[in-house]
Amino acid sequence: MSPSLGLVVVAAGSSRRFGSDKLSVRLGGRTILQRAVGCLRAVFPQAPLVVVVRGEELEARAAELRELGVSAFVPGGEHRQDSVRAGVEALPLGDEALVAIHDGARPFVPAEDLRQVVAAAEETGAAVLAAPVADTVKEVDPHGRVLRTLPRERLVRSLTPQVFRVGLLRKAWQQTGPSLWTDEASLLESLGVGVKAVPGDPRNLKVTQPQDLAFLRGVFPPAMRVGQGFDVHPLVEGRPLILAGVTIPHGKGLAGHSDADVVLHAVTDAVLGACGGGDIGQHFPPSDPQWAGGPSRVFLEFAVARAREAGLSVANCDVTVLAEEPRLAPFREAMRENLAGILGVLPAAVNIKATTTEHLGFVGRGEGVAALAVVLLVGD
After folding, report:
1. Are 37 and 104 in contact (CB under 8 A)?
2. Peptide bond before 326: cis, by omega within 30 degrees of 0?
3. Whether residues 309 and 182 fall in one domain
4. Contact 234, 367 (CB under 8 A)
5. Is the model's pLDDT at 1 over the cut of 50?
6. pTM for the full model?
7. Claim to verify: residue 227 and residue 271 sit in the same structural domain
8. Complete DSSP assignment for 130-177
9. Same domain, 200 and 245
10. Left (φ > 0), alpha (ψ -120 to 50) or beta: where does 232 sit?
11. Which candidate in 39, 234, 288, 357 could, as Cys together with 364 as Cys, close a disulfide (CB 3.0–4.6 Å)?
12. CATH number at residue 22
């Protein structure tokens, strides 16, 4: 029977070279850390998984990774190797078990690479993913002068996960004391332990500097979410007719608790629907007196903000207004520009169409106005 397997994701770094919190940057709608943890969890859904984070981020990271089945979050140490040790010791593993150690800043690891490196460690006790070096590699002195060219045929880039027999790691920690190591493979190598290099996908890149994101965004397509919304209000005397935030000259206006702008209401529901934010009535119930007669742009601004919190922004919006009268063509451009301004997009990303129902139904009888909206949200 194969030994048990535990997973450790190290995410306790300061992101100093990146300049900001790189692990929270989104790629294809998910953060870098979510993708790094998700790679392991997708292949090994039952394995205990520990994420090592900075002490002050324990609660925030737990919330971020809530749906990925993390067994425990532990605070990291002063150096990477201290964080790795804290993560390994937090796992309920015996010496014969395997532990896979992965960098939280590596969001892309193919499933087959994971299976291969674990299988190699099961056979040898220590294995790492490694990618070939494509460029010519030169050694330079402190002044930048080239000393020699190294034969790249025998050079590889060390990737993660790195997988080891837990007992080997524990023995190595006892023997080496406070020495510093850039990874656990080099620690074991220093003690004469053979480490198997398993060919890995070169796209398994560790995000270190902002320019690394340009490469990885080619791996993860942008997130896309589509939402649709519909609203209808009756036409009554004594109310202004407001559509897309523009006052339309007409003998009647739309009845409703707020300004009854059916266009902005429909678009609000579309944005909320696309980002999983519920509906307009949930956030702005007509029973709440503070919204009586209020401008509907407040509702849409709220929905756009909710989308941004989810890492999404409006790409385009298409609206159809159903009204027998008045004729909306003279006001369409003003409506379009106003709606684009609220959504935070160029007018070219917004389309407003108007049509009648050929005198059929309540719209055709001039009793009310309806609007349908479709919105596309995109995220990094």
Report:
1. yes
2. yes
3. no
4. yes
5. no
6. 0.75
7. yes
8. EEE--S-EEEE-TTS-EEEEE-GGG-EEEEEEEEEEHHHHHHHHHHHT
9. no
10. beta
11. 357
12. 3.90.550.10
CA distance linking residue 53 with residue 43, whole number of Å: 22
Pairing relation of β-strands 5-11 and 49-53? parallel
Sequence-distant (6+) residues with CB within 8 A of 179 are 190
Tokens 């294809």 correspond to what residue? Answer: 28
Structure tokens at 265: 């209401």
Q: Rounded CA gap, 259 and 345, in Å?
A: 23
Cα→Cα distances 127→147, 152, 187, 221, Å: 31, 21, 13, 31
Range of the domain at 264: 223-379
Q: Which of 244, 242, 235, 210 is nearest to 317 (CA)?
A: 244
- Binding-site positions read 231-233, 257-258, 265, 279-281, 355-358, 362, 365
Contacts of 183 (CB under 8 A, 6+ apart): 80, 128, 158, 160, 162
Q: Which residues of 147-174 are buried (b: 16+ CB within 10 A; e: fewer)?
A: eeeeeeeeeeebbbbbbbbbebbbebbe
The two structure tokens encoding residue 85: 């040790």
Please write the tens of the pLDDT for every residue from 240-282. 999 999 999 999 999 999 999 999 999 999 999 999 999 999 9
Question: No. of H helices and E strands in the chain?
Answer: 12, 18
Does 205 lie in the same domain as 350?
A: no
